[in-house]
Amino acid sequence: MTITRGLQPFPRAEYLRRLAAVKAEMARRDIHALVVNNAANVAYLSGYTVSGSWGSLAQALLVAIDKEEPVLVVRQCDAPAAIHQTFLERVNVIGFSESLVGKSGADGFDAVIDFLQEAGMTKRGLGLEVDYLPPQTAEKFRVRLASTSIIDCSKAVAWIRFVKSDIEISVMREAAAIADAGILRASEVIRPGVQEADAVAEIAAALVRGGDGKPGTSIPPIYLCSSPRTGTCHIRWSEDVFRVGSQVNLELGGARYGYHVGLMRTYSIGPPSDRLRRLHEAEVAGLEAALEAVRPGATCSDVANAFYRTIKKMGFEKETRCGYPIGINWTEPTASLQDGDMTELKPNMTFHLMLGNWIDEDFGYVISETFRVTESGAEVLTLAPRKLFELD
Q1: Tens digits of per-residue pLDDT, 5-49?
Q2: How far apart are CA 96 and CA 37, in angstroms?
Q3: CATH code: domain of residue 120
Q4: Which of 34, 87, 347, 386 is spaced 20 to 30 A from 311 at the CA atom?
């Protein structure tokens, strides 16, 4: 049976372009083969976004400097997904035996090592994403490949995917429209007497239905923190109902083919307190100052400090960072929008300008935008109103 592809948006040429950049970095480090096991990096280089087993089972994308296509090694039952999702020829998708699943001792990484040896990919330098391997697995590579020079390449692919292609930006614009739809749906369903879980169900449905005719392809975590839980950021909804006088801080994201766009807004059921209103005004002013600081050649620190200076003049401070690079699987482990991060901004870098500010145990506020660095400034991908939503 022929399996019809179509679950990823990029042409083969786009993946080959990315692989060429990775191979250039491999050549610089004198590496013949690279074992990629970080899920976001695998998605970037192949289109494979199956998430059910990442983190609990051995899976890897093997990039050889002298081979056009990489080889994807996954659990046997996940191999057909790779045919649906990736640009890889069938011969380059390897499903390892179920006998290596759920047992102590040998696991799927033994299948990875076996393939590397059989394919002659261990004769020269071998790159590993050590930061994303359990210590015992990294040790297994060192013991079984004792004669091979192993080099830590944990951030190599992440730095390459930090700068997006134009086609990636187009997919992130689609994800941004989905995030906007979720924020606007929240403004319709957050009402007194409505159970938080029911509101989140409606918000999640909006993230799946999508925006501008493009559905969401997954649902990133939804964080809904209502009074008196607005002084924290990463808890989910409760079994409680919304009440008059409640504040709701919401963080969500739109997702298209593994690419994420984050968005945060604050809602008040009834008139907001003077303190909340003043904080909102300061945060919006700081957000605009931060965006004005974005330009090629500026640093992450420049953007963050533009925000910090602005809100300080208005009587507030923020202890946490102002954001981070965003793309596949939400965060990209390369830089932070914070004081002292001298990472230089370049066109087509994308960031979640995350300005959540948790001031007391029972009081905080959130607002954010996802933006792209352009040749001259910032393009905000999200379009939701930059307002404190006041709900009846």
Answers
A1: 567 779 999 999 999 999 999 999 999 999 999 999 999 999 999
A2: 15
A3: 3.40.350.10
A4: 347
